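Structure first, sequence second, as always.
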């Protein structure tokens, strides 16, 4: 076991750990010039004192959405005499209209923020603050889909543009979920007047170049070789082109090498780091899902493991499930949880979201398989997925014992409805 003095001593592996963090913004973001340019175009009118179009940025986790927006914000900070004012708001933390408004006021009028005012008071103060010198306020809402009363928030912020005589508000929303706007009220949608920007996943070659760039300053000389970098990049590409995953793996591999007091990172450390990161990725992805998406995913995991009312399809390696059978199991689980199952229309949207997150894959079957039907496959290890979901849905930790209704639910195996 390493002593505290060992932990405080200078690392023989890392030269700058921060560079290997997914949250570090480098001076140059590789392979994202087009996306950065589009964000700059969206924000440019605000820098000239004009209202711009709202922008919504989409993409899977680890595709550089937040990093690119933050990169542009840092650029803006270096521009003198601009009327634009910007707030970057993490909606996982500030997850309601009131909290977002209070965060904006805290950023720009801090003496007003802690006086116990309500949302209407905050709105009026924000409006007068914008009007006093014709400001253009840019609200960057990261993980915007996490806001509980999103309709109210969007309507409130866009309404400012109608209520002020000069100045205005521009929104930049960032989300992993392309279809989150489908749940918005028509009046909120009509007020958006937005453009959209989709971030594609990174290729393995791009991830390798990113890792090569970061490792050159993150590690000391000759700590990691190209074989390890290519291996980690390939693993991250398999995870859906996730740069965040690749950086987590590389940093963890460095920590494992340091714990062993090894002189360099080998394939063994890389392999162990990938296994650890995969567990974190499953939890991170599942924990952010809305409850009914978790239930659908749990239905898929249960059927993949134990089978259902129809014969499963398998090619000897992978297992495929009928969409109808998954929907029946979802309804049964919802019923056992005393939840009202959503309609098939919503169920199809949930499948699309789960596929967007890289948790499942689906495709239409050919003729001869019960007519045309959608086939579904789970993309993560079944038991690992079940363990995470049982913790999220029923408070059951791996190896733990569920309580009351959760225990009854698990004992029942959620038999499908006829």
């Amino acid at each position: 076991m390493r002593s505290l003095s060992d932990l405080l001593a200078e690392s023989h592996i890392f030269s700058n750990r921060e560079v290997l963090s997914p949250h570090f913004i480098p001076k140059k973001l590789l392979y994202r010039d087009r996306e950065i340019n589009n964000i700059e175009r969206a924000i440019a009118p605000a820098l000239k004192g004009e209202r711009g179009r709202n922008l919504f940025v989409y993409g899977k986790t680890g595709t550089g959405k937040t990093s690119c927006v933050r990169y542009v914000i840092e650029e803006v900070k270096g521009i003198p005499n601009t009327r634009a004012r910007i707030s970057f708001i993490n909606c996982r933390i500030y997850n309601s209209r009131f909290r977002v408004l209070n965060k904006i006021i805290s950023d720009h009028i801090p003496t007003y923020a802690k006086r116990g005012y309500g949302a209407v008071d905050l709105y009026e103060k924000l409006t007068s603050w914008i009007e006093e010198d014709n400001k253009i306020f840019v609200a960057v809402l990261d993980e915007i889909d996490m806001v509980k009363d999103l309709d109210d928030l969007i309507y409130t912020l866009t309404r400012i543009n109608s209520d002020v005589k000069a100045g205005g508000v521009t929104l930049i929303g960032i989300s992993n979920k392309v279809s989150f706007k489908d749940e918005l009220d028509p009046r909120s949608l009509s007020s958006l007047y937005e453009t959209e920007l989709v971030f594609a996943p990174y290729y393995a070659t791009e991830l390798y170049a990113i890792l090569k760039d970061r490792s050159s300053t993150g590690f000391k000389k000759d700590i990691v070789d190209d074989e390890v970098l290519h291996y980690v990049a390939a693993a991250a590409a398999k995870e859906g082109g996730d740069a965040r995953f690749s950086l987590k793996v590389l940093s963890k591999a460095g920590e494992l090498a340091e714990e062993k007091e090894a002189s360099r990172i080998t394939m063994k450390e890389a392999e162990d780091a990938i296994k650890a990161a995969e567990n974190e990725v499953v939890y991170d992805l599942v924990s952010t899902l809305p409850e009914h998406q978790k239930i659908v995913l749990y239905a898929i995991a249960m059927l993949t493991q134990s089978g259902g009312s129809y014969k499963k399809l398998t090619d000897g390696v992978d297992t495929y499930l009928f969409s109808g059978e998954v929907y029946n199991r979802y309804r049964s689980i919802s019923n056992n949880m005393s939840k009202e199952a959503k309609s098939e229309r919503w169920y199809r949207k949930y499948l699309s979201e789960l596929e967007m997150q890289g948790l499942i894959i689906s495709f239409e079957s050919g003729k001869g398989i019960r007519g045309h039907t959608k086939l579904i496959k789970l993309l993560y290890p079944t038991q690992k997925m079940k363990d995470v979901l049982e913790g999220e849905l029923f408070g059951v930790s791996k190896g733990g014992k569920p309580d009351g209704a959760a225990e009854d639910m698990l004992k029942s195996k959620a038999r499908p409805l006829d």
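Margin note: Residues 267-287 form the longest helix (21 residues).
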